[in-house]
Amino acid sequence: MNDFVGTGTLVRLALRRDRILIPIWILVFVITAAGSAKASIDLYSDQNALVEAARTSNASPALVSLYGRIFDESSLGAVSLFKLTAFGALLVGLLGGMLVVRHTRSEEESGRLELLSAGVLGRYAALASALIVSGATVIVLGLLTALSLVGSGLDTKGSLAFGLMWAAAGLAFAGVAAVTSQVSESARAANGLTAIVLGVAYVLRAIGDSSADGSTQWVSWLSPIGWAQQVRPYAGERWAVLLLPLAFLALLITAATALIRRRDLGAGLVRPRPGPPRAAKSLRSPLALAWRLHRGSLYAWGFAFLLLGLLVGNIASNVDGFVTSDSAKEMVQKLGGVEGITDAFLATEMGMVGLLASAFGIQAALRLRSEETALRAEPLLATGVTRAQWLASHVLMALLGTGVLILVAGLGSGISSGASLGNLGRQVPRMIGAAAVQLPAIWLVTALVVVLFGLAPKLVTGGWVLYGVFLLIGQFGEIFNLPQWMINLSPYDHTPRLPGGDFSVAPVLWLTAIAAALTIAGFTTFRRRDIG
């Protein structure tokens, strides 16, 4: 039998399942790029102001490490889209990878692929169809983005390079997900491994870009995100660089197909360690089981957040020396919304940490649906465990887990910045407080997933869509000149800007109350629906 037989059928099935999700994500990316370009064209009508803004950004290692370097300070396109170059490539890479995992490892884990394999289905059909769907999605996304940028008034050549740059990043990480889907036995682990590779790639790019003397710029070339950035749209396009992610994809596809031949359907290359024949006494409650299921992910995220906090605190202690011009200081102060330049940077970074912690909350809450579809919830609920107990165990892990992550990041940044600034006793509690105020917004986003799980479980992945919308509103709402009522829809917009800013207890209480109400609504609706 042909190893690829049935690929077309699986492609049609995947497109049918994602007929709403894929167009929404494409639309979000296209609107974001076009809106950013249009807003910048209206803002930088004066060439001197454009160059000054670019130099201000390049003069700040903090901004360069976050968003990348502007290679042509006189280019309107390069300045307009500098926030979306590396960061946008990261998000497109995440989309490409998640689509591959969704249509390979998730299908195996749920048992659907085994049923399909009982018919006429080749060994590589699932992987091939997932790569086709993911690749087609990011390519269409890139081309439509290029057209929207041309329509916004930017150069055609640079716009095409920008769109292809995004598509290339998506293809590279689709290849990464193709490999992680063979290594792991669960979709969550495969997505986690892909996210780790994405994070490492972004950090490598940041290290290379923020090199003051150019001695470590070569590090960027170790990262697929760095390759995308080196295409340099609107700054003397380097078309040949696009061959690197394509070669990387081909290499990873070869590796993934080789791994498929070495494992059984439904199994991963790395098999989970068998447990003891009898359960320990510590596993006699739903919460204990939930902790067992989530602890590995929480340990990995916690270590990453500790390192992130230490890194942020170390950079913050030197921000005053990095940013020398008045315009640069004004930019960073506006980003953080506080008076002091160091506090402004820390407030901005704590907001970013809050966004990242929300991703863990969504992932942990989505475990409810994966347990249900994998038919592991129903046998448990057939015992003395009630629906409320089972749901509460996973919701608590999501809420408490995000709390641990955000506080670990605050502790790390407080220790790092306090040791450098010589005021450890003052800085640690300030940073823990700055981290803690992020929790109500994080919990609200997690509660939205709980509501979707209880009310419309098939739409529970819409939590990622809402998260993406909130992220884009927060990052680009002012650039797009969105009305204030729309910006206010994002819970992150109501979080106090600490350290250094004014603290108001009202928004914290309101966000917490809304999160609690949504969680209760999720419990109520879950009790009234059928399992499965």
Structure, described:
- With 532 residues, this protein is mainly α.
- The protein has two domains: 269 residues, no CATH class; 249 residues, no CATH class.
- Helix content is 72%, strand content 0%.
- It contains 24 helices and no strands.
- The longest helix has 35 residues.
- The two termini are 35 Å apart.
Our Rg estimate from Cα atoms comes to: 23 Å
User: Looking at the structure, what is the overall shape?
Assistant: globular
Cα-to-Cα separation, first versus last residue = 35 Å
Q: What level of helicity do the residues show?
A: over 70%
* Class from helix and strand fractions: mainly alpha
Which consecutive residue ranges, at least 5 long each, have pLDDT under 50? 335-339
Q: How many DSSP-defined strands?
A: 0
For the largest beta-sheet, the strand count, sense and barrel status come to:
none
Mean pLDDT: 83
Query: H/E series, N to C?
Result: HHHHHHHHHHHHHHHHHHHHHHHH
- Domain count: 2
- Count the helices. How many? 24
The percentage of residues in β strands lies in: under 5%
